[in-house]
Design goal:
Strand content: 25-35%
Bound molecules: zinc ion
Structural class: alpha/beta
Radius of gyration: 19 Å
Number of strands: 7
Number of helices: 6
Helix content: 25-40%
């Protein structure tokens, strides 16, 4: 009797949602990043069409973090710990153009009108500010970035931009590269 290789409909895994589909792509894009501290990917989606992809990286023709090392600056952040305000020193790499900014540099204004951006990480204040002025009407992110959370959420609400995260989302295997934090 010939072997039956067909997968019955009940055994077939459930179809990926569009959210998962586009966030998976953003994570795959982030693997191109050469920053030693952070790998971020972003994609532009109009309707169900992919119109652009970008990751954080140095300007073309300039050495990237893997060649020249991260370009670190120190910042002081005020945090609440047990109701007390404490000042913590943090380092941040400024060699790269952020994924969201590269996405804006490499897409057309017309394509962005009414579009959605999927980005692996919650945008920082500067990126959020630029996205808010870019024609994008929805931003979907995965990993939180608590530092700018409050002011970014407030601005998105004021601008009427849908700003949401994906709960119960798992990045695709192999897309999380080890980075120092
Ligand atoms: Zn870097
Ligand atoms: Zn940013």
């Amino acid at each position: 009797m010939p072997e039956n290789n067909h997968v019955s409909p009940s055994e077939h895994p459930p179809r990926k949602s569009w959210d998962t589909y586009f966030m998976d792509i953003a994570y795959m894009v982030s693997t191109r990043s050469q920053c030693l501290r952070r790998h971020v990917g972003a994609v532009l989606v109009q309707g169900k069409k992919l119109l652009g992809t970008a990751y954080n990286g140095a300007p073309m023709g300039m050495p990237d973090c893997s060649e020249a090392g991260c370009m670190l600056v120190e910042e002081f952040e005020v945090k609440l710990a047990d109701g007390e305000e404490v000042v913590v020193k943090k380092q941040r790499c400024i060699r790269t153009i952020h994924a969201e900014q590269n996405l804006l540099l490499f897409t057309d204004r017309d394509d962005r009108e009414g579009s959605t951006v999927y980005v692996t990480d919650q945008p920082c204040w500067t990126c959020a500010n630029m996205l808010a002025n870019s024609g994008v009407v929805e931003i979907v992110y995965h990993r939180p970035y608590p530092k700018d959370q409050e002011k970014v959420s407030t601005m998105m609400a004021t601008k009427g931009i849908i700003f949401r995260t994906l709960s119960d989302y798992e990045p695709p295997a192999g897309s999380l590269t080890k980075v120092t934090n």
